[in-house]
Amino acid sequence: MSHSPSLPDRPRLELDPEMSEAERLEAIRQHFRRIRQVNDELEERLDDAQDRRGDLKTDVDELKRENEVLKTSSLYIASVEEITDDGVVIKQHGNNQEVLTEAATRLDSDLRPGDRVAINDSFAVQQVLDDETDSRAQAMEVTESPDVVYDDIGGISDQIREVREAVEDPLDDPEQFAKVGVDPPSGVLLHGPPGTGKTMLAKAVANESNATFIKMAGSELVRKFIGEGARLVRDLFELAADREPAVIFIDEIDAVAAKRTDSKTSGDAEVQRTMMQLLSEMDGFDDRGEVRIMAATNRFDMLDEAILRPGRFDRLIEVPEPNAEGRARILEIHTRDMNVAEGTEVSEVASELEGYSGADIASLATEAGMFAIRDGRTEVTQSDFEQAREKLQDAEQDEQVINYQY
């Protein structure tokens, strides 16, 4: 246990009667200097004590606040479903329990259906919370543009032109549409086999346009608790409206927009509820608004007819497997940074890739480079491309055998 330092001894003035006047004066002067020195030391200690007192007061205040927090009951988050003469119907987040309760008198005039509120253990509404955008929706905003440009995508020049007309042009030059007197397409749906460039096309739009780009996967909208998926959809569109001009891109939209069935399971009902919210949000946008919608799917046949009708996705753009010219362009794109040996005919390699998607061709170029590295060479030859093609064909055949067995 530490003790406070003792105070300095008080200086005493002792004068000898035998002293001369000069000696008395010098003794008084020395006594005065000692008094000043003691005074300075006491003032320094006083300042230290005051600083210490301030620190202790801060610690006490913090402990008091922590004590108050520990004594205060936690509040739960809920949403106001309905306001009736008998009270307020709320739905607690997490368990979706609906309760008829009362609100504090001071909140009677402030409550509205849909408000986020804090309730206590007795379900009484204590305060109205700000209707902040879901953090998961904010996390889907792409803040850094992908390093993909339209020149990086080969074999789908017509599709690129249609996407730019439907997405970029209405945002960059809306006056042109007004002068012509036509409404721009409200949404663009890209569909086709896997690996044909649908997501790359969306990345190029994000890079080339000056709009806020919000990307999400359809599977992310499928939530465990009732109403969470619908709320996330609503928050996404509110975020886009706040950030306009904006582009919303929904990948794998078939996960949430599949054909409706008569299934009564809670999971299917929640997916359908989320899809209905998505349809409602798409219908709610002004045709000349500053928000464009894009989506992509590999399973066009699974989509519900409601989401395909005009006014929602006006442009249905098929992104097919590339033809011979497209395959040559894609292979050229993926080999332009490679050290290809002189005499290697890339176009001849591309002509033998019937049925290959853009992703397959990109994989073939990578495998060809790996064969060159394996042999200790710095140039990729025609033989490397041939070996890469054989390897991919063998892998595809093995996969088909496994799928047949199961």
Please explain how this structure is put together.
The protein has 12 helices and 11 strands. 46% of the residues lie in helices and 14% in strands. A hairpin with a 2-residue loop joins strand 1 and strand 2. The radius of gyration is 37 Å and the shape is flat. With 406 residues, it is an alpha/beta fold. It starts with 20 loop residues before the first helix and ends with a helix. The strands form 2 sheets. It has a 6-stranded mixed β-sheet with strand order 6-8-9-10-7-11, with helices on both faces. Strands 3-2-1-4-5 form a 5-stranded antiparallel β-sheet, with no helix packed on it. The chain folds into 4 domains: 59 residues; 54 residues, OB fold (Dihydrolipoamide Acetyltransferase, E2P) (Beta Barrel), CATH 2.40.50.140; 182 residues, Rossmann fold, CATH 3.40.50; 82 residues, Orthogonal Bundle (Helicase, Ruva Protein, domain 3), CATH 1.10.8.60.
